[in-house]
Design goal:
- This is Cornichon family member 4.
- The chain contains 4 helices and no strands.
- By secondary structure, the chain is mostly helical.
- The protein has one domain.
- Helix 1 packs antiparallel against helix 2.
């Protein structure tokens, strides 16, 4: 049972790493003017909800399987994703809005957030991998 939890968390984490890299590449394309703000934001907003669900799934899996350290490690990121999604102003297209993404350094802050999430997911990947190997050895 424990190995199955970490295997599914590992697969989930791989998907989150892929999404983080996708967000970084798309935001850097906008920064270099390879794509326009509207297409960039529509591409990114399409993946905000799946990212939030995947992060919540990893958090809930750790809660249900009573791995408290990893649960507490995942909780702030899942909470931040929900907070960002809920706090979108009414007139905006989504978390990433084309009319505001170049204002007040939002592009830089979105890029920094994507880099931090990539580092976090890489850390979680190795934690899940180590825990999965331990669970398989103990079974």
């Amino acid at each position: 049972m424990e190995a199955a939890v970490f295997i599914s968390s590992l697969v989930d984490c791989c998907a989150l790493i892929f999404l983080s890299v996708y967000f970084i590449i798309t935001l850097s394309d906008l920064e270099c003017d390879y794509i326009n703000a509207r297409s960039c934001c529509s591409k990114l907003n399409k993946w905000v909800l799946p990212e939030m669900v995947a992060q919540a799934l990893a958090t809930v899996l750790m809660l249900v399987s009573t791995h408290w350290f990893v649960f507490l490690l995942n909780l702030p990121v899942a909470s931040w994703d929900v907070y960002r999604y809920v706090k979108v102003p009414l007139g905006n297209m989504g978390v990433y809005d084309p009319t505001e993404i170049h204002n007040r350094g939002q592009l830089k802050s979105h890029m920094k957030e994507a880099m931090i999430k990539l580092g976090f997911h890489l850390l979680c990947f190795f934690i899940y991998l180590y825990s999965m190997i331990l669970a398989l050895i103990n079974d």
